[in-house]
Design brief:
Blueprint (H helix, E strand, L loop, with lengths): L4 E5 L4 H12 L5 E5 L5 H10 L6 E4 L2 E4 L1 H9 L3 H5 L5
Parallel strand pairs: 1-2
Antiparallel strand pairs: 1-3, 3-4
Helix pairs in contact: 1-3
Length: 89
């Protein structure tokens, strides 16, 4: 079973779009998008969880991937698909 995918994002973020495109290409159908532009209080939550201010911030299950560049680096390293299958990072 695929772990839950959670992404902190904004509407106008091109990196959020690129990250979502990669996840969709990998067969991810359900992404919980937390729009910090619509719910500003959630930015504080994101910062407490990640220590980062920028979007996207992506979680696969409990694993904090990081941003778009981090997600693409996992893909290049061959580590994204195992994470999406629920295997340990």
């Amino acid at each position: 079973m695929q772990p839950a995918i959670r992404m902190y994002a904004t509407a106008v973020c091109p990196y959020c779009v690129r990250a979502e495109q990669l996840l969709r290409h990998k067969g991810v159908a359900d992404i919980e998008k937390i729009r910090i532009d619509l719910e500003p209080g959630r930015r504080d939550e994101m910062m407490q969880l990640t220590g980062r201010r920028t979007v996207p911030q992506i979680f696969i299950g409990d694993y904090h991937v990081g941003g778009c560049d981090d997600l693409h680096a996992l893909e290049r390293a061959g580590r994204l698909e195992p994470l999406l299958r629920g295997e340990a990072a």
